[in-house]
Amino acid sequence: MPSSIENIRWTLASPMERQFFCAGAPRPMPFRDGIVDRRGRRIDYARISVTDRCNYRCIYCMPPEGVPPLSHDDIMRYEDILWLAGILSELGVKKTRFTGGEPLVRRGMAGFLKDFRDVFPEMALSVTTNASLVAQNARALAQVPRLGMNISLDTLDPDKFREMTRGGDIMDVMSGIAAARDIGISPIKINAVPILGFNDSELPRIIEFAWDNGIVPRFIEFMPLCHGVWTRERFMGSGEILRVLREKMGEWALVSPCASADGDVPSGPARYYSNAASGLTAGIIEAVSNHFCSRCNRLRITSSGGMRSCLFNGAETPLFDVVKSRDTASAKREILRGIDAKPLSWNDVRNGRGHMSGIGG
Ligand code: SAM
Ligand code: SF4
After folding, report:
1. DSSP, residue by residue, 151-172
2. What are the chain's domains?
3. Atom of ligand 1 nearest to the CA of 100
4. Worst-scoring range by mean pLDDT, 48-62, 80-94, 110-124, 213-227?
5. What is the pTM assigned to this prediction?
6. In angstroms, rounded to a whole number, what is the distance separating the alpha carbons of residues 122 and 28?
7. 187 cis-preceded (ω within 30 degrees of 0)
8. For the chain, give me the number of helices (H) and strands (E)?
9. Is the minimum distance from the CB of 84 to ligand 2 under 6 angstroms?
């Protein structure tokens, strides 16, 4: 009886790739459709952080005093990121998401997205943002064709929002959401982190707000990354989230595990549920209670060029120097080496958490 790892490998691999596995090659291999790691996972999605800085200090993401910022000399320039994206594209990466910190606090970010789209017309492109600076960047963002946007919004109550973000004004986010819709950004998703005793009673309201605006709502399980904030008592797993949604909004049925209504890759982390009363969907990202390591298709790159093959693995593969030297062969070798260190499960690592703002979420 093959092990579950073997099952995953054989399910995902093409005939040519199976030959490779039969040959027993011990390391990840780049294929046209993505890098296939030794566990058979196809890595075709890069999340690149463009800055560790942020205009908010969300309680679940950062300590109150913020995180000491990296020096400008230590972060990749836009042309470095474009070069690295070219290498990743050659290795089969098909989807890039830019994140932060808050990506739009970095000067020139909207223009960079346009440059990125020009250089990589085929790449699926999206940005994760708190949306507070979207309205003021709307004109430039409108020039970026086929841009998706994930917007973080954990509460609709202005006072709670200020508390959650340690000073943010929810009206900036509302203007950002309106601007994103006006300029035709699609898809737009709202990501909320449910926290018991804070926003748990608001989940149906957040869903209704998203639906009213033609947006897909998703809940991300609160991950224990920022020390001193996460406690088991505040954690809401997907079971508890669904219980609240069923109590307040009637029946929900799983649409299909890990497939979204809006073109998310099948290996995406969200499970989508359809509400019987409205026929509309909402997603839950079970990052903690039912983590998706066996089908994880992503790699993360920090603004200083550290590649994390797993969110929970603090051991980064440093790419900054190979990027700066434009050394294609070394960059590919180091990326493959980093992917080889991708754990099968976050249970195997959990050694280096850090703040989500530095890793990119
Ligand atoms: N500033 C942008 C934003 O807030 O969307 C992008 C960076 S933020 C680190 C990316 C995502 O990580 C956000 O959706 C945020 O809610 C999520 N996040 C941060 N800390 C988290 C935690 N401890 N558990 C779950 N999600 C978290
Ligand atoms: Fe900033 Fe995003 Fe972290 Fe909030 S979640 S502090 S907006 S990086």
Report:
1. EE---S-HHHHHHHHTS--HHH
2. 1-26 (no CATH), 31-217+294-359 (3.20.20.70)
3. 7
4. 213-227
5. 0.88
6. 24
7. yes
8. 12, 15
9. no
